[in-house]
Amino acid sequence: MQNWIGLLPAFPLAGFVLLVLSRGRMSKTAASFIGAGSVGLAFVLAVLISIEFLNSGAQSFSKTLWVWMQVGELDTGFSFYLDGLTLVMILIISGVGFLIHLYSTGFMADDPDFARFFSYMNLFVASMLVLVLADNLILLYLGWEGVGLCSYLLIGFWYQNPANGYAARKAFVVTRVGDTSMAIGLFLLFSQLGSLNIQEILVLAPSQWSTGSGMAVAASALLLGGAVGKSAQLPLQTWLPDAMAGPTPISALIHAATMVTAGVYLIARTHVLFELAPSVQLLVAFVGLATLLMAGFTAMMQRDIKRILAYSTISQIGYMFLALGVGAWSAAVFHLMTHAFFKALLFLAAGTVILSLHHEHDIFKMGAMRRRLPVSFWCFIVGSAALTALPFTSGFYSKDAILLAALAHPTYGMLLWVGGVLGAFMTALYSFRLVFVVFFGSSHYAAHEAAPHDDHAAVVENTSPAMFFPLLILAGLSLFGGLISVPVDAVFAQSGVHEEAHVSQFLHTLMILIPILGVMISWLLYGSVPYEKAGAHLRQRLVQSPLGGWLNRFWFSGWGMDKLYQTLLVQAFLMLAHINRKDVIDIAFNGTAFVARFANSALVLTQTGNMRWYAISLVAGLVIVIGLGVFR
Amino acid sequence: MIVLALVAILFFGGAIAWASEALDARMPRAVALLSLLASAAVLLIFCFSSSPGVMLAGGQWWVLESWAWIPRFGISLLVGVDGLSLLLLLLTLFLGLIALGAAWNEIQERVGFFYFNLLWTIAGVVGVFTALDLFLFFFFWEVMLIPMYLIIAIWGHENRAYAAMKFFLYTQVSGLLLLLAILTMSYLHFVQFSRFSFDYFDLQNVVIPGALQTWIMLGFFVGFATKLPIFGLHSWLPDAHSQAPTAGSVLLAGVLLKTGAYGLIRFTLPLFPEASADFSSIAMTIAAIGILYCAKVAFAQQDIKRLIAYTSVSHMGFVLLGIYAWNLYGLQGAVMTMLAHGLSSAALFMLAGGLQARFHTRDMELLNGLWVKLPMLSAMALFFTVAAVGMPGLGNFIGEFLSLLGAFQSNRVATIFAALGLVLAAVYSLWVIQKMFHGQLRVPSQYASAGDLTLIELLCYALMAAGLVWMGMYPQSFLDVSEVSLLYLQSLGGGGE
Predict the structure, then answer these.
(1) Does the CB of B478 have a partner CB in chain A at under 8 Å?
(2) For residue B301, what pLDDT band results from cuts at 50, 70 and 90?
(3) What are the CA-CA distances from residue A542 to residues A430, A435, A537, A545, A553 (Å)?
């Protein structure tokens, strides 16, 4: 089975090719079978490979499909490398990916570009699988750019609306800033170590660089640049909220479960480099901490159901970065997995809500949907509980591991822990705010407003099997996924980090209780019956006070970073481009032509054939020459 | 005989094409097709029959032929084909066929003379890629330019006279410098060996004192860099491209620009190693500036062909960067970029030409949201744009990645700035996609009935797309061909890290 590892990305890639060649003329049934079926096949294969791999007891397995580039010392192949970390990733990608594909066959059923949608989705899954299977950084970069391209194509899937196009371009360009940093990192690694094979680098780097050496710092910092771009961490997080313009299954697959966690994967994969550069590793922790808090506060202020989830994703990836930063590699991967379950669940449930309410996104225009959308309601309850890390859900186990590891950090343990717990409190607030506002209280939904052309638009929850089944499975995984143990111990065996910390019972209890407290406060503010009056009144007061109003706007805008980049970079570039539209170099050369022509016409004037004119100029010349001679 | 056969087929094919117009207006293109296919067949038979792999082990040259021409001045018909030449010859003939496909229905006036010029341009390029006698090289250099001048001047668009004159002046002035430098080299050979010679291998033995070497090197550099073009000498290109007929743009972008890069690799650096080594940091700086500057200017353009033209200059910066890195990575990167950019830019120009043929405008403000109306054409545009952005898996990535990888080893600062070009490439490319293909449909109403791709177009795009995928997924088949030649040239240029 392992020898067929090349087929893993080949299945979805073949699906992509078939769907593209059909040029939209394929029936929706056939397109569904190809689109979802190819990913399903990949999942089955992934499971078979996993069973064989785990039974074999080997640490790793690698296979070269063909030579890619062989130039001088550079020797890269289309080579795949399988170990515990890869295994977790391929199972998430193909498994969650399959469920989301299945859901999409229902969600996108009325879309005229059905086949195009599935072709991009399949290409995405293929690229993502290459990303995690790659045994060298160039092949990883291929997957890395490939998922970025698919993300661009799918965010802008409904291309007739220019706003979607803007969001798509923003996502691609912002992440490309990170990608370029990563590419430079590859050049540096290659120029210093003479290899881009990941396993070779992990062996060569410690033997050539001492801990904290400049090269190790530079290389890991450049890779970190790529990771923050892809994983939407500070300061490159601004693209992800806008990326919600894409169809909701995309948000679930790309912008929650898989692609955005590629940065976490990259750092975990190259963890040896980060251990060689403790300053950068600490930076990873603080980037994670700052991001998780920033995104948590911002999520509190959003009204758009998908933007809340987007900021929540940024925040949760912040936790993963925090874990990476304190060297809790397997906790990061564990949270990556549980997050993939519950965030995919939340997004798909949000998709059902949005579809049932005729593309209404504003949570304050929903309300009391508990009875009308029971399936979505229960999915949201389960997903939010896991997101909030309420005890015994999957998120509980993974977040617990991260916070304990943060506390164990020798110098900044307490700071990182307090920040993380504060973030957990915020998580409880914003996720249950969403649940209470949408599903409790009284209904603010006005069908005619959301669907003006459909007078009889009723709220009917779509519970076709294709959409119900994935929700059910994901809900199960969100609840019980914490019991899965990720087989990554062997991958991080060499790293000398002690993840189990001796923490006082008091702190541990506090850590468990704080999210519950958050849920209760959220209930008081948004869920309880008097909320309609008191909660609304309180919020009104807060927003009207100068500081509250400013904070509200500041947090709502994602801490003003969009505006900052807009002014500093985008406007400046547009202005530069505009003033030099005609290319100053061209003008300079045309200037030469102009001077030549002018000189020509000026000289033509002198050749008038007029005797007096010649005589005068002759005399004038003589006078000047004599004058020069006399007064010299 | 192979080179002679190639050039002869194209020269005579051109002449026959012109003459055949008297019989039927459709004859010239048929003759052109036949002669291009015949020359391609000759080249392919050569590729497979002489089993290059075996001969490669022995020497760098698979073919080296010489006939006397003007013995008194040491001028001979010395031609050779090595791996580098072979790849570029294949590209030339392939794009010659593509250009023919682009012209097939577009050219309706003076058809015979057009195909005459087309074939003679290609013949000139074939000569440039094979001549090893510098006088012969210069002869072909001119042969390739004058028909191209005519193509722009006669079959071009609204502002063709200006564009053609600009093209002509730039290439002639820089060609003059090149000629002066070549003559000086020959004279130096006369001084040192008491006979004139234009032979590439003879001239390698000429010892050139320091300052003079810099001046001669600059003569070669300017001659080739104008053609590439580099930043600062590029302003002929947007005009020439936007005014040329589609087939002209395809050949210009796909092939003619590459002759400049070829000249740098084949002549400038190997003949003047010391001067070039001193010059390399300047050249790499120019490359980085060009990449960023032209990407920025491209973004501001409204004329789609001008935009693609500026992106061409920007991408050629990666070639210059790779060449002056002067290590195997950079050189292989430059060659791969030449090949891949040859296909991707040719395809993009052909798409722009196709849009102009359909809607009679190149103004991006007037053409929006074409995906709804022309899904196949738009999908092709998306594919080739994505290739040009440097998406891994397609040829352009291999070239740019290797160029930067090599350049990083010799000049980090320039490389880092050049790498920022990857971001700007995304900015302008996605803007074009947004503007022209996404969004709400809007086209000039009188041409609203324009149809999607024709069969010929589809065939051309499919071939080019397949080529880019091949280069991107299995570049080794190209890298293997050029490696020995590049190592040889690198050893002449005193490189080798």
Answers:
(1) no
(2) confident
(3) 17, 22, 9, 5, 12
Do residues A378 and A475 make contact, with C-beta atoms less than 8 angstroms apart? Answer: yes
pLDDT in tens, A408-436: 888 888 888 888 889 999 899 889 888 88
Residue A347 C-alpha from the chain's centroid? 14
pLDDT band at B53 (very low <50, low <70, confident <90, very high): very low
Sequence-distant (≥ 6) Cβ neighbours of residue B233 within 8 angstroms: B170, B174, B222, B225, B226
Q: Which domain holds residue B437?
A: 2-492
What residues of chain B lie within 8 A of the CB of A74, using their CB? 329, 405
Contacts with A221 from chain B: Cβ below 8 Å: none
Contact criterion met (CB below 8 Å) for B106 and B246: yes
> What is the secondary structure of B376-426 as a DSSP string?
HHHHHHHHHHHHHTT-TTSHHHHHHHHHHHHHHHH-HHHHHHHHHHHHHHH
Q: Which of A69, A160, A586 sits opposite B476 (nearest CB)?
A: A69
Instruction: Tell me what the mean pLDDT of segment B40-46 comes to.
Output: 85
Q: Which A positions 554-593 lie with beta carbon below 8 A of chain B? A: 573, 576-578, 580-581, 583, 585-586, 589-590
Number of domains within chain A: 1
Q: Is the pLDDT score of B346 beyond 90?
A: yes
Contact B263, B235 (CB under 8 A): no
Is position B497 within any domain? no
Which pLDDT does position B322 carry in this prediction? 92
Give yes or no for a contact between B461 and B347, defined as CB atoms under 8 angstroms apart.
yes
In a domain, A522, yes or no: yes
Q: Round to whole Å and give the CA distance between B291 and A30.
A: 45
Q: What is the DSSP string of B86-126?
A: HHHHHHHHHHHHHHHHHHHHH--SSHHHHHHHHHHHHHHHH
Write down the pLDDT at residue A101.
92
Question: What pLDDT sits at residue B339?
Answer: 94
pLDDT(B412) > 70: yes
- All residues at 6 or more sequence positions from A539 whose CB lies less than 8 Å from its CB, including other chains: A525
Distance in angstroms (rounded) separating the CA atoms of residues A462 and A376: 10
More confident residue, A616 or A12: A12
Residue A370 in any domain: the answer is yes
**Is the CB of residue A11 less than 8 Å from the CB of residue A45?**
yes
What is the per-residue pLDDT across B216-247, written as a single tens digit (0 to 9) for each?
889 999 999 988 888 888 888 888 888 889 88
Distance CA A216, CA A206 (A): 9
A71 vs B327: CB contact, 8 Å cut-off?
A: no
pTM score: 0.89
For residue B497, count other CB atoms closer than 10 A to its CB.
Answer: 12
What is the pLDDT at residue A494?
60
In contact, A31 and A118? CB cutoff 8 Å: yes
Q: Looking at the predicted structure, is the pLDDT value of residue B372 above 60?
A: yes
Burial of B59 (0-12, 13-18, 19+ CB in 10 A): exposed
- Residue A318 placed within a domain: yes
Q: Angle, to 10 degrees, between the axis of helix B412-432 and the axis of helix A162-193?
A: 160
User: The tokens of A50 are what?
Assistant: 């996993």
Are B476 and A578 in contact (CB < 8 Å)? no
Is position B178 within any domain?
yes
Residue B443 lies in a domain: yes
**Alpha-carbon gap: A586 to the closest alpha carbon of chain B (Å):** 5
* Closest CA–CA distance from residue A155 to any residue of chain B (Å): 12
Residue A437 lies in a domain: yes
Question: Which of B332, B147, B177 is CA-nearest to residue B255?
Answer: B147
Give the pLDDT confidence score for residue B397 in this predicted structure. 93
Structural contact between residues B132 and B182, judged by C-beta atoms closer than 8 angstroms: no
Number of domains in chain B: 1
Cα B460 from Cα B354, distance rounded (Å): 12
